[in-house]
Amino acid sequence: MGIHNPIVNVAVATNSFRAARPRMWARGLFLLAVGAPLMFFPARARAQAAGTAQAAPSLVQTDVKLVIGGEKIKNGSHGTLSVIGNSLQFATSNAKVEVEASSILDISTNEDSRQDITGAAKLATMAIPYGGGRVLSLFSHKVDVLTVEFKNANGGYHGVIFVLPQGQAAPIKKQLVAMGAKASVPLADPAADDKNKDNKKK
Amino acid sequence: MKRQTRSAVSVIFSIGLACVLLLLVGSLWGQTGSADSNSKTARKSLPSSIQIEPTDPGDVPMPPEFRLAIYENLITQIEKSGRFQHVYRSGDKDAASVPDLITLRTTAQSFKKGSQKEREVTTVAGSSSIILKVHITDHAGQTLVDRNVEGKVRFFGENLRATYDFSKKVATIVRDAI
Predict the structure, then answer these.
(1) Residues of chain B contacting residue A147, judged by C-beta atoms under 8 Å apart
(2) Better pLDDT: A149 or A59
């Protein structure tokens, strides 16, 4: 019995070691499960930071009024209009509307309407009776109006109108056109105009 | 004998009652069926969907914001009328497969430029108005509505109100005429 007992004890010791093995595995797996996301966390954070750097708004205009066409946003709401990444975004405290530059069919400002009809054509249109010749505008006070015509994912034609402080619509239009938005009336380039004048003088 | 006659009478009476009940149920069933078929034919003749095309400025020097305000207001007002199951925007791919689709087109005819200041001061003079031709056709191209509609802004507000007024009038016409 005296000799037999130690043998039995060894077996018990080995069994307890074997029993401890799955526990170690479990601990290892637990540590791996907890540690793995932490290992990748800094990289993910860096990637996120890079993402926000890419999507940082390049143009921001506050106190913009959405006149009509905001879908989820009520007509007449005030918010911030910005060019973020490749799209135009209007955001209020509750909702936002985003239009990709590539989906814009036409973008215009109220200045374009004035550019459109000038000189002889303006005189000719003014001659049309019953007031048919003068340019009709939505707003009588001096503001900039930015009009965006675009297609949704289903091909549906949309229009959205914004009212901005005077002189603020043209830079937004310029940026969106540079990103691929179409514009039936191109923005007048003052530098090019000056060059043309100089050439004519020569 | 008396018992037999009584039981025979009760059997005949119950059979007769059952027949009358069956006839009543049958006639009622027939009536509801015909009513259903009538409503179905009525529903069939009414279009369930409308597609709205962008406003054509015609010869009127109408800036894009004005055209878009009319278009967006039309969509909102016709949706609000509740007359159609679907109000499709121009170019919507889903509209192509709708068999009873009708199309609404608007073309500018003329406008009278008023003055907001004058409106606010006098409340009589200075009204702005726009006249547009409203043309509605069915899927086969047959004209359903073809008339001029005027949108006005009389007392207060920007010219934007004229587009709202016009759209409300068109929504009423569509609801009543179709």
Answers:
(1) 63-65, 68
(2) A149
